[in-house]
Amino acid sequence: DSGVTQTPKHLITATGQRVTLRCSPRSGDLSVYWYQQSLDQGLQFLIQYYNGEERAKGNILERFSAQQFPDLHSELNLSSLELGDSALYFCASSVAPGQGTYGYTFGSGTRLTVV
Amino acid sequence: GENVGLHLPTLSVQEGDNSIINCAYSNSASDYFIWYKQESGKGPQFIIDIRSNMDKRQGQRVTVLLNKTVKHLSLQIAATQPGDSAVYFCAENKPGGGKLIFGQGTELSVKP
Please, how many CA atoms are within 13 Å of residue A22, restricted to the half-sphere of its CB? Predict the structure, then answer.
């Protein structure tokens, strides 16, 4: 157990639908990162939050949004889902942006399947 | 642009041999590098990191080498074991930023 909790582990939904993925960072970590991993692809950075504020954006689609709440958990919202959105979505956390004794700690991911 | 790439997509080694996984990065401003191991169905797991003010760092059975001149990173695994079979990713971080930029990954297969 890495200390980063992601729910749900698996999600199957239809095209056009909207889903919410949840992440609880490791205790003490203030920064949360979301990554997308498609089949045979590396990890693509989506977005980063630090203490409730958006810190950096990557290749995140306009159909996707995220937020970090006062209790530091984060949610990634994916809407108007397309088949190509099927992927593993990982959340990672660190003490502060760019800092961490052992890099960033990743959760076990949410596998999203759009049918 | 942002690009961290791996020279070999797959690597097959015999149990007990040493493994070397290579990575090229493109941003000379990156000052922190990490190697992650990802087993099937799991999230990336930290292996070892190195800062740009170092050339080499050793862990338990693993060594990371950094060559800033040619922007090259390598991960050496000594006495490779079947449990080392996984996909290995290198990642880089630029100063002042928080996000990690990942390479495509190398799949390491260890034959018993």
Answer: 8
Tokens read off for A46: 């989506």
Judging contacts by C-beta atoms under 8 Å, the chain B residues touching residue A4 are 43
**Yes or no, beta carbons of A103 and B103 under 8 Å apart:** no
Residue B73 contacts A, CB cutoff 8 Å? no
- The total of other beta-carbon atoms located within 10 Å of residue A11's CB is 18
The reply to whether residue B99 touches residue A33, judged by beta carbons under 8 angstroms, is: yes
Residue-by-residue pLDDT tens, chain A, 115 positions = 789 999 999 999 999 999 999 999 999 899 999 999 987 667 899 999 999 999 989 989 999 999 999 999 999 999 999 999 999 999 999 886 655 545 689 999 999 999 9
